[in-house]
Automatic annotation (TrEMBL):
One of its GO terms (molecular function) is hydrolase activity, acting on carbon-nitrogen (but not peptide) bonds, in linear amides. This is GlcNAc-PI de-N-acetylase. The keyword Zinc applies. Pfam families: PIG-L.
Amino acid sequence: MASAPAPFPDDWQRALVVAAHPDDIEYGPAAAVAVWTAAGKEVHYLLATRGEAGIAGLSPAEAGPLREEEERRSAAVVGVSEVEFLDHSDGVLVADLQLRRDLAGALRRHRPDLVVVMHGGDTWTPPEVTPGALNSADHRALTRSLLDAVADAGNEWIFPDLTETPWSGVQYVAVHAVGYPPPHVVGVSDGVETAVASLVEHRRYLEALSDDPVEEQARRQVDMATLTEDGGRQVGFRLYWG
C-alpha cells in the first residue's frame, strides 16, 4: 500500500522553475507557483525554447515571439516577473553537454534554493501503468539534463568557460509528478483560479489546438494538473536533495 503524500518543504525562499516550452508550466505546476508567490516566495522561470514549432500553420519566425510574449504575460499572472529563454530549438532538444552547460549557467545566475522541473518520463502515466501516452522528446531531454546540471552548477571544474560563480545552494529538486499518490504535495486550492487565468494567456496557442473556448480548455487542463483530496486541490512532486 502506498504511503500518504508528505507536505512539500517550506524551508526555501527562491525557486527556479525549468521547462522546455511556453505553456509547460501552465499545464503543470502553475497553481503551486501561484501559492508560493502569494506566500512571499521568489520564483523565476527558465524556458529552454521559445516554443516556435508549436503552432500548426504559423511559421517559427512568427510563433516564437508570440509564444514568448504569451509566456511572459502568463508568468506575471502567477507573480513571476523574471522569465529567461535559452534559445534552444523547439522540438529537437538533445540531452547533450551543450544543454547541460546552458542549464548550469542559468542555475548559477538565478541561484535557487529549489529547482522545479517538468515530468520527464517516457509516458504521461506512472511507470507501473502501461500503456500510456508518450511524453515529448523535449521534456525527456530537458529533465534529464537539468538533473545533471544541478551538480554541474556547483563544480568549478565542469564547464570552466562559464563566467558565473559556481552555485551549490540547491536544497531540493522537485519533479512534477504524474499519478497518485505522489510522494509530496502542495495544497493549491487558493491558486487554482490564478492558474486558470495564467493558462488563458496562451490564447493563440490554445486557439490552434481546439475550437473549444480557451477558458474551457484552460480549466480542463488545470483540473487535470491538480489532484483533489479531502475536498482540496493539490499539486504533486517527486522530491530529491540538491
